[in-house]
């Protein structure tokens, strides 16, 4: 087990037979501050699958926090269960009690399969919850800034590919039309996208986007499953599961770039090299999808949407800088991005231990 969790500070298995809660909380690194990361609910086939997912996701949060320049560390939680069938207020209260037991080392909120409403129940047990609705003292749906961040990432990418920030007259292939993907699709239509290829396992999500396409006069083509990798779109936008950029799918891709919200898009880091070899520009996921993190981290200062938007806009310049560093250093965009984050963590961690009280975040207003 210790080999498996190598590199992580703490992994907590949460078991409550009364509510049926089976969850894992993984804290990767708290050298920049307490761990922060959403909670995913998914019917994992095995506990090992759930563990692998939470370990990968929490590690990604460490880099995301460093890149977005928020004083938090990397953590994430997964609940093993079917979001359509296994949710109950008691289950989320039980999860909240486990979060509370970590005594401020871990802050959490939504991710795939969970909604802000779920965490209103958890909030009854712990203050370490972010991203609930404003009426409960939270900053609201974090998928709104996440989707905005993806749009800024797309603009930066179009700037490199075509010399313009405009998103119009291009075709995009979106995988996953959930909280983030549906908003990205909506905004791309507003921005004048020529055509969207879309896929989702939820037929209702597909019907909604198709109806919107008719209203906005934008062509929508629904494709089944893996066909999303094989469209003639200009940009592929993954907004569902991780690990979808792998030997098999990269072979099929003939887009010019990949820019999406899904966490851990690359099955393994060497897949960034494969994309580079194929001439596909890859926007590192944790740079592009940091809008939600920016909002939930900001929430602890007292929520402020303008401040969040300003910081989310910085994704545009961060991504351009990463593209430039990668080009100049002959690296993949992921290598360039990881290097930048590791340098920042090294210098900030030292600063934190010199000047900060151990009990961070020092700005938390809800403790
Ligand atoms: N919500 C947020 O603010 C953030 C989300 N992310 C990441 O973005 C991705 C999407 O997140 P959300 O939109 O919040 O999740 P969500 O649960 O609201 O939506 C996910 C969508 O993907 C669909 N889906 C699941 N498996 C699929 C498959 N095999 N093929 C096609 N579609 C599939 C689902 O039916 C659903 O519509 C996740 O990887 C998440 O970790 C990252 C940062 C922040
Ligand atoms: O979006 C959130 O609520 C928290 C941040 C997070 O979990 C993520 O960026 O993956």
From TrEMBL:
Report what the protein is called. Answer: Leucine dehydrogenase
Question: Binding positions for NAD(+)?
Answer: 176-181
Which residues are responsible for catalysis? 76 (proton donor/acceptor)
Provide a GO biological process annotation.
amino acid metabolic process
A GO molecular function annotation here is: oxidoreductase activity, acting on the CH-NH2 group of donors, NAD or NADP as acceptor
Q: Which organism is it from?
A: Jeotgalibacillus proteolyticus
Name the Gene3D superfamilies on file: Leucine Dehydrogenase, chain A, domain 1 (3.40.50.10860), NAD(P)-binding Rossmann-like Domain (3.40.50.720)
Q: Which family does it belong to?
A: Belongs to the Glu/Leu/Phe/Val dehydrogenases family.
Specify the Glutamate/phenylalanine/leucine/valine/L-tryptophan dehydrogenase C-terminal domain's residue ranges. Answer: 143-351
User: Sorted alphabetically, which PROSITE patterns does this protein's record hold?
Assistant: GLFV_DEHYDROGENASE
Keyword NADP carried by entry: no
């Amino acid at each position: 087990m210790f080999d498996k969790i190598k590199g992580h500070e703490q992994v907590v298995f949460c078991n409550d037979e009364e509510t049926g809660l089976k969850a894992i909380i993984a804290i990767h690194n708290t050298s920049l501050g307490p761990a922060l990361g959403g909670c995913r609910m998914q019917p994992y086939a095995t506990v090992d699958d759930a563990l692998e997912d939470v370990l990968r996701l929490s590690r990604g949060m460490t880099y995301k926090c460093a890149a977005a320049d928020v004083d938090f560390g990397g953590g994430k939680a997964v609940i093993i269960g079917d979001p359509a069938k296994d949710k109950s207020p008691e289950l989320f209260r039980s999860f909240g009690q486990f979060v509370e037991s970590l005594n401020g080392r871990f802050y959490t909120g939504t991710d795939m399969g969970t909604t802000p409403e779920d965490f209103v129940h958890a909030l009854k047990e712990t203050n370490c919850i972010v991203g609930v609705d404003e009426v409960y003292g939270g900053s609201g749906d974090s998928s709104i800034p996440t989707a905005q961040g993806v749009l800024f990432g797309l603009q930066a990418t179009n700037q490199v590919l075509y010399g313009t920030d405009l998103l119009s007259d291009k075709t995009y292939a979106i995988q996953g039309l959930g909280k983030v993907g549906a908003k990205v699709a909506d905004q791309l239509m507003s921005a004048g996208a020529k055509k969207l290829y879309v896929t989702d396992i939820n037929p209702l999500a597909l019907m909604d986007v198709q109806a919107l396409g008719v209203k906005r006069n934008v062509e929508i083509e629904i494709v089944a499953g893996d066909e999303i990798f094989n469209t003639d779109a200009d940009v592929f936008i993954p907004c569902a599961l991780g690990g979808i950029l792998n030997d098999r799918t990269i072979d099929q891709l003939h887009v010019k770039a990949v820019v999406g919200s899904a966490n851990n898009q690359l099955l393994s880091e060497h897949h960034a090299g494969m994309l580079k070899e194929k001439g596909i520009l890859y926007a590192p996921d944790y740079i592009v999808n940091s809008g939600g993190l920016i909002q939930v981290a900001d929430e602890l200062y007292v929520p402020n949407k303008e401040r969040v938007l300003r910081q989310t806009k910085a994704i545009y310049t961060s991504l351009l800088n990463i593209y430039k560093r990668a080009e100049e250093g002959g690296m993949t965009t992921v290598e360039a991005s990881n290097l930048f984050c590791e340098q920042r963590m090294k210098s900030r961690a030292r600063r934190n231990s010199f000047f900060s009280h151990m009990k961070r975040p020092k700005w938390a207003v809800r403790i």
